[in-house]
Write a structure and sequence with these properties.
Blueprint: E1 16-18, E2 44-49, E3 55-59
Parallel strand pairs: 1-2
Antiparallel strand pairs: 2-3
């Protein structure tokens, strides 16, 4: 099955980088994201840990 995507010229999606010493836990609690709260203006956050091939998503639906 081919992967389809839409181009979004001029749109930049910001990804928060967690320090390696503060990898978020997948436990349903949002306190891992407290260090990013001052910039939180959306309902979905995406983060990663440098050097690891993982994305962490926080969806406050």
């Amino acid at each position: 099955m081919p992967l389809l995507a839409w181009e979004r010229p001029g749109v930049e999606f910001k990804v928060f980088h967690f320090p390696a010493s503060q990898i978020p836990r997948i436990d349903g609690k949002v306190d891992d994201w407290a260090m990013d709260r001052k910039d939180l203006e959306v309902k979905v956050n995406v983060g990663r840990v440098t050097g690891m091939k993982r994305l962490y998503l926080l969806d406050e639906a």
